[in-house]
Amino acid sequence: MKFYYLLIFFTISQIAQSQPKVPQEYFENPLDVPLVLSGTFGELRSNHFHSGLDIKTQQREGLEVKSAAPGHVSRIKIQHYGYGKALYIQHPNGYTTVYGHLQRFSPEIEAYVKKQQYANESYEIELFPEAGELQLESGDLVAYSGNTGGSGGPHLHFEIRDGSQRPMNPKLFGIEIQDHRKPIINGLFAYPMDEDSHVNHSAERQRIRLIPLKDGTYTTEKINACGKVGFGISTVDQQDMASNQNGVYKIEANLNGDNVFQLNFDRFSFAETRHLNQLIDYEYYTNNRSRVQKLFVEESNPLSLYANVQSEGRLEIQDSLDYNYTIKVTDFAGNESVIRVPIQGEYSEKVQPKQLEETEYFVQANQSFSTEQNGIDVYIPKGSLYQDKYLDISFNGDTINLHKDDTPIHQNITIGFDVSKYEPAEKEKMFIAKLGYRGRPGYSSTYKKADRFTTGIRTFGNYTLASDNKEPWISPVNFSDGQWISNNSNLKVKISDDLSGIKSYRATVNGKFILMEYEYKDNTLTHDFSDGAVTETENNFKLIVTDNVGNTNTYEAKFFRK
Ligand SMILES: [Zn+2]
């Protein structure tokens, strides 16, 4: 009987620690080219973990994208930003695959989408086809790879999601990528964690020099420390056949042989992805553009990527005791990089103290906070900050200098401006701007209500009132007024707006809506004549472009086709 219980316990604890059980070889490579990655699952990105694989497409667009398994198209979403043109396939075994940044869909799906775009008179669209409408076998052509949306170059973004729409590491499903290279360690840091702790006679974060050994592992000089101490590591992985710096798969830490911390990139939920900002040393990232992952857990960090964490990963270093701390970084192929850190517990009285900038605004993370001056008010809801913090806030005319962008914000902080002193005509052209590089104002979504403008922000910085009195700019690319363009396959127009940015655009021919696809990366609107929307010989083209404060420009031209 006892043996039986033990066996159950053993099995359960094994499952809890090992990778999720998922079907192997069910999903096939969605491309006909070998899998080379420019991004891995869980890779650290700006405000989020990467939720899939970025598969290289030989620096070009238009490669055939195929259904990774049988199923049906369950969702199609087209956005100017984000995933651009994206397709979701629901599979009978409960998983969903996602294909992003597509150039266009297969002819059947493209016709389905365009019909809805014309019915809605919108390029941006979200559709949920029923099962049976767009049914697919494994390997069926669904789209062509592209570079639409927030993509830095042609590639296919490929995701596998579980039944709760949580993205999972596609490599768990037996998708293999050639990788014979060990993860690269770019830096190691030690963090004294409370008032009494210190590392190498300092209460500040310390960079620890890495010493490479002949066997390929690293060690460090002996660290002197006392009290609560944590570590952080900057690490990336490279696979074969590409120089891209991708994410690693697993980070583990041991203290004197006991596992005290583990981070596994197997699965996460979109609801938790922004907590990346408290996994990394955000302040270090802001100032150095390098992401250091903490090997300890901040109190308020609910990330499900953690496993086997003892005492939040913090070490309790005592005077006159020696410790061996070991960090192991592993990629999905099993290549490992190991760092051994010898620590000597040693109480020291001569400690360089932590620099603390005290201001008159102390904000507690678990309480809301508000302040007001010069007709500008700030409201910080509880839970916006991860930690209690002195904020540096000052007011200067119509500008609020709201701390520095080295502190992460989890949920929107509201800034309000009293605009009663401005004339109605002035107010109409005004908006709330974040002052960027060289003081350039960038539009922050502005809600206008009589004498009060508000905006929600998720980065600290300087915010002010700005005006945009200029209408958007419109310029035809491949036609001019009065021209015959029978040989053109499309109609291209460049549009841009200087200050507040483009809010909407609408094109018609002879009074009828025509679909134009907006590519913000090259400021281009494109109408494809193969839509069949332009049928006459003589065509009056009209394009209205509106910016975020309502300045409007209308461009009209006549063109002929036969
Ligand atoms: Zn991606």
From TrEMBL:
The keyword Metal-binding does not apply. One of its GO terms (molecular function) is hydrolase activity. Keywords: Hydrolase, Signal. It is an enzyme of class 3 (hydrolase). SUPFAM superfamilies: Duplicated hybrid motif (SSF51261). The keyword Chaperone does not apply. It comes from the Bacteria. InterPro entries: Cell_wall_metabolism_enzyme, Dup_hybrid_motif, M23ase_b-sheet_dom. Its EC number is 3.4.-.-. Residues 49-117 form the M23ase beta-sheet core domain. PANTHER family: L-ALA--D-GLU ENDOPEPTIDASE, PEPTIDASE-RELATED. This is M23 family metallopeptidase. It comes from Autumnicola lenta.
